[in-house]
Design brief:
alpha+beta, five-stranded antiparallel β-sheet, flat
């Protein structure tokens, strides 16, 4: 559960000071040192990674007895001049770097966190440049309309009877209205989409679908927004890098899913167990999954649920689903898929150790008077201890280096 965002209904009022500060901040984004000279140059992504690497080494020198960077070293910037901890800044640092449960950061985690900030910075700068282009196009349209109104006003002042000229052209204009009526309607729908709805920005990952149909629970095929104008939107398919162009009017009636503006991704992982598996072993499996999730705070926010979704006695299996919330949004789908695959592989190995792996019955089903083998799941306390040791060995296999 996340706190709802409360926005004031009153219009924001920007002062001259705010505008000047904003312009100064934008100028710093184009500088060679957007993260101050103390951080190092960051004019490109590769240079930013090199500067992050050297900064990590410099920070690690303050704790020479440690092989990893303690988060306490970074938290020093969260104190004010009087030595008081600024909690908002400390929480922001935790959300950005996500140290492990012991409070340490690896070099890879440190560089990845700064790389995320760099990418957001460049996307925001590109979005501002694209917004300026749209504003210029809108200004050109308004200039044309203003010129037409000014000419009509001048003609009225000098006494020219313009209504006779308009009536003589009425039949000609009506015929053209049938030709361009639908196109004009789509044109204005596209303008309203860009100026009123604003469903996406440069760099956002979007998915298009019919509003009358439901979307897939496992995610949708997405496109990266590369360019936006008053009339068209240029996108790139995230899977194959194919580039396409939509007219904004054609996008107006569609459902536009924005992965960048969506909350953190919710992931589903399914497991099948035999219908004669004892519930005690299923609880052991659940505990192993909970420990696996807790040991990866940079990947998972929480384990939302573990429950049975299907009970198929004829097919001799019970299907369980593991519901989790990932740290990333669907905008960054790569780490989400990797974490999902790691969890599925870990669950498979644990189910093997606990003898919970489902084996589909042969078809047709052969009836016999032999025992069904239910007792193979009955475990003694000593055997349960051995199972826990085997689960710990599986956890070591999936431990991040």
């Amino acid at each position: 559960w996340e706190e709802p965002e409360i926005r004031s209904s009153s219009a924001s009022k920007a002062t001259i000071k705010d505008i000047l500060q904003f312009r100064q901040a934008i100028s710093l984004m184009d500088d060679k040192y957007p993260f101050t000279p103390a951080f190092g140059p960051a004019s490109t992504r590769a240079i930013c990674v090199d500067s992050s690497d050297s900064l990590y080494d410099r920070l690690l020198e303050s704790t020479p007895d440690k092989s990893l960077l303690p988060f306490e070293t970074l938290s020093q910037i969260a104190y004010d001049n009087k030595g008081n901890l600024m909690r908002d800044k400390a929480k922001a640092l935790i959300r950005l770097f996500r140290p492990d449960r012991r409070g340490y950061l690896t070099k890879l985690d440190f560089v990845s966190s700064i790389d995320t900030v760099y990418k957001d910075l460049r996307l925001f700068r590109a979005s501002l440049a694209n917004s300026s282009t749209i504003d210029d196009s809108f200004e050109s349209i308004m200039n044309v309309l203003t010129a037409i109104l000014a000419i009509c006003g001048i003609l009225l002042i000098i006494g020219f009877n313009q209504w006779k000229a308009v009536s003589s052209l009425a039949a000609f204009l009506v015929s053209f209205s049938f030709m361009f009526g639908a196109a004009s309607s789509k044109y204005f729908e596209g303008i309203l989409l860009i100026f009123v709805r604003r469903p996406y920005d440069i760099g956002d990952k979007i998915a298009l679908s019919d509003p009358s149909t439901d979307t897939s629970a496992s995610g949708s095929s997405t496109w990266f927004v590369e360019k936006v104008t008053l009339f068209t939107t240029t996108v790139r398919f995230a899977t194959t890098n194919e580039v396409a162009t939509y007219s904004n009017g054609s996008l107006a009636p569609l459902r536009i899913i924005n992965a960048k503006r969506s909350p953190k991704a919710v992931v589903y992982v399914y497991h099948k167990f035999g219908s004669d598996a004892p519930f005690k072993m299923v609880k052991v499996f659940q505990t192993a999954i909970e420990n696996f999730v807790k040991s990866r705070p940079r990947e998972w926010v929480a384990l939302n649920g573990f429950r049975a979704t299907r009970v198929e006695m004829e097919l001799n299996f019970i299907e369980y689903v593991v519901v989790l919330t990932h740290r990333e949004m669907w905008q960054n789908i790569g780490p989400i898929l990797q974490s999902q695959a790691d969890l599925a592989s870990f669950g498979l190995e644990v189910s093997k150790k606990l003898n919970l792996r489902y084996i589909s019955p042969p078809k047709p089903i052969h009836l016999s008077t032999e025992k069904s083998g239910r007792n193979k799941y009955i475990e003694s306390d000593s055997t349960m201890g051995g199972k826990e040791n085997e689960i710990n060995q599986v956890a070591e296999m999936f431990r991040n280096e």
